[in-house]
Amino acid sequence: MKLPLLSLPALVLLASCTHPVGPDHSTPAINLPNRWNASTSPSSSPLAPDWWRTFNDPALTKLEELALSSNQDLIAAMHRIDEAEASLRIARADLLPSANSSSSTQRSQQSANNNQVPGFQPQAVSQFRTGATLNYELDLWGKVRRAADSRKASLESVVFARDAVQLRLTSNLAEQYFTLRSLDAESAAADQSLASLKSSLAVAETRYKGGLTSESDVLRARSALSAAEADASDLLNRRNLTSNTIAQLCGQPASSFQSPRNASLPSQIPEPPLNSPASLIRQRPDIAEAERTLASRSADIGVAIGQSLPSLKLNGSLSLESLTLSDLLTQGSRAFSLGPELNLPVFSGGANDARIASAKARHAEAAANWRQAVITAVREVEDALASQSSARLIEQQQRARTDAAARNAALSLERYRNGLVNFLEVADAQQEELSARRALVKATASRLSASIALIKALGGGWQSPSPHR
Questions:
Q1: Rounded to an integer, what distance in angstroms lies between the CA atom of residue 60 and that of residue 66?
Q2: How many CB atoms within 10 Å of residue 134?
Q3: Strand, helix or coil at 87?
Q4: Burial class (CB in 10 A: 0-12, 13-18, 19+), 253
Q5: Is 185 helix (H, G, I), strand (E, B) or coil?
Q6: Residues 140, 419: Cα–Cα separation, whole Å
Q7: pTM
Q8: Of the candidates 460, 416, 439, 466, the residue with the CA atom closest to the CA atom of residue 202
Q9: CB distance 162 to 74 below 8 Å
């Protein structure tokens, strides 16, 4: 018995120095181009994490700060980090011995009717016991270390998932905010058109009363005015729905939330700096999340392999047992046990091989998910760049169209006052002006949306931090 006890420290040292079973994690290789299709040379300037400040809009900044502190999806993601941290502590605790202490008092008496000895009178007996147990599994193959590595990678994955939630939140909020402003701008254009239509209706009624035109001009003017009023009501409804969405993103009840009003859109829309496609791997939290999930699945292979190998546990106990409380602390009450427990897997019906195969399949799936995350990120950047370029050109064209339509509407109304044209030409010109103004607002909103989509696709200024723990 002495030899095994003396060799136990050597076994513990050997277990701590043994390389863990299973593969070490490595990031898969993926070929990425050196530059984007729709851009010039890459930039070395980083995007700021609080990128929304580049729009120089205090109302947007205030909403973003409110969302970061009150959005319930983000708060839930933070609590998932707490849960993952607790799981990591549990896994790391398995690397250490576990000790338990217990104390008990028991008084018992046998049944007199359950004994064949005539006249047997059982006596009540008291038993007192206190003691401690010690259990420790030697991590011979690194199975426990691999389990801790898996939990650590899972924790980092959850942290990056929280960052991905935050990126989606801030970008979605900015997009909804500028949608709100574009609706306000469309409403302002509609109000301007309503004023013009009311003026045209007044001119038509004056000319009709003077016998200079037919009643059809008046009816046509009233119809155009009614259509414009219905359109204004639709814009108001869409604004209310967008405001409700913003309230939800900010973690506020829609009934008590007041969204800011601003009928103008930014004249200068920031364009985020572009690095090379290869740098995108370090700029996107969802890619980092997928990579850490892959690392966790890699460690799980080692855990599965370790479960199919022999395990060695050290079990020990020390207790004091006595029939009287006064003798409990005497030397004669002492009892102990100490010894190793070796478990040799002999037959599992293929369960061990199946666990290893399952772990390898999950690892291969995680590798494919990581590659897909990278490919999707590259596509989203290219889409945003293409949309940004197209929106910029369309905005320029719509601006020229709006200027021409406004000039034509003014000339048509002047000619109608002078009796040179009928009201149909005036109505068409005014409708064209309204359509052009709203199209310009939508073009600017599309450019804003493309800019925000590009910021989101580039990771919103996020940079992969050092390992969480």
A1: 10
A2: 14
A3: helix
A4: exposed
A5: helix
A6: 101
A7: 0.83
A8: 416
A9: yes
Domain 29-100+142-310+354-457 falls in which CATH fold?
A: Outer membrane efflux proteins (OEP) (1.20.1600)
Query: What are the pLDDT tens digits along the chain (469 aa)?
Result: 344 444 556 555 555 667 888 899 998 888 888 888 876 666 667 788 899 999 999 999 999 999 999 999 999 999 999 999 999 998 888 888 888 888 888 877 777 676 666 666 667 777 778 888 888 888 888 888 999 999 999 999 999 999 999 999 999 999 999 999 999 988 888 887 787 778 777 877 787 787 777 778 778 878 878 888 888 888 899 999 999 999 999 999 999 898 888 878 887 788 888 888 888 888 899 999 999 999 999 999 999 998 889 988 888 888 877 777 777 777 777 878 888 888 888 887 888 899 999 999 999 999 999 999 999 999 999 999 999 889 889 989 989 998 999 899 889 888 878 878 777 777 778 778 888 888 888 898 889 999 999 999 999 988 777 544 4
Within 10 A of 41 (CB to CB), how many other CB atoms are there? Answer: 10
Tokens of 214: 């037919």
Rounded Cα gap, residues 262 and 62, in angstroms: 14
Phi, psi dihedral angles at 322 (to 5 degrees): -160, 155
Give φ, ψ of 260 to 5 degrees.
-70, 150
State the Cα–Cα distance between residues 24 and 29, nearest whole angstrom. 15
Tokens 């991590």 locate to 139
